[in-house]
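Entry for flavin mononucleotide complex. Fields follow.
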Amino acid sequence: MSTLFAETCIGNMTLKNRFIRSATWENMATEDGHMTDKLYAIYAELAKGEVGLIVTGYANIVEEEQPNAGMMGMYNDSFIAEYQKLTELVHSNDAKIVMQLAYGGTKTTHNVGERVIYAPSEVCERGTQTLGKAMTKDEIDYIIAAFAQASRRAQKSGFDGVEIHAAHSYLINQFLSPYYNRREDKYGGSLDNRMRFLVEIYAEVRKLVGDDYPILVKLTASEFFEGGLTFAETRIICKKLEAIGVDAIIISGNIHGKASTMIGETYDGYTLQQEGYFHEYGHAISQDVNVPIITVGGLSDIAAIEDIANRTNIQYFAISRPLLAEPHLIKRWKQGNKAAVDCERCSKCRTKRGNFCVVHKKRKTNLKPT
Ligand SMILES: Cc1cc2nc3c(=O)[nH]c(=O)nc-3n(C[C@H](O)[C@H](O)[C@H](O)COP(=O)(O)O)c2cc1C
């Protein structure tokens, strides 16, 4: 019997189903990260569409480091009132909402050269070729404190939890990675040392939000390249996260744009799948730890999700692009309509005018009477 629509909990957060809107940068905030009517409307639609938990697009935690245009901000207290309005809107539609917090780092080409961009070491990001500044201990402490302050603001704004973005080649991921992290101090070298930045961020966040507030962490299963973070290391990181009290772990990857060539390939002993790219990795981790595991990437077929739910210990299913195409997808599935999703996984949804499904939009336009 399907348990996808059963009530479950992540920490003290009760969720009405096992579907999550994966963090999705909308490119619709103001230049300095404030809310717009368009953003409120998107979150209202998702909540009305019966997504159990909505994770916001990544929000920057320090004002001077905005890795992308139009992203939400959480770098000072001026955001609290508008996010209170957002969380009330989502709650009034019977959904939960968590804010994703991030320091971008060198995985950016946005306004590079106009600001100092931190990195663990002076190693160019492989995709963007952006070079960062190797952080001093004071700068590390500054970013740790910024994550904690942003989390305090999220709690005050009524968010049901926070998600620390430690995946996709952003700063925390780079600290975990032996490729990006060449440090010789206590933040580099052994895996224990490479994990220290994330562990200290978590500890400082926990101190400010208290024991009962859900803290989620998004990780990359593997960096999928020679010399990068391996899945064996990610498994050890997850055990550490369990030990320190993280409430849920999202297992992602960083294969945007390369998925079609990588699916079916085996890396670190597990295979990337067409339906649920990283679910074999998530399943392996779910057998190691007692923390709810969320899988994300390539989930668009309810029958396939049902099958993963039945075969594995994975508890939650996070979805990004299909919900850009169909914000009411979960409601449709709940009503029993299992027709194919209006998402071609083309990843053309990032546009200068905001991130939305261009294919679906075109189709809708074509349907208009002439
Ligand atoms: C337009 C767009 C924006 C995204 N923004 C974020 C983000 O802010 N934070 C994040 O962790 N992942 C982000 N992602 C990645 C998604 O959360 C997700 O991991 C990825 O798209 C795979 O899931 P899917 O196959 O359901 O789209 C974004 C993806 C897209 C397409």
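NOTE: The pocket of flavin mononucleotide is lined by residues 22-25, 57-58, 100, 165, 168, 218, 252, 296-299, 319-322, 347, 349-350, 355 (CB under 6 Å).
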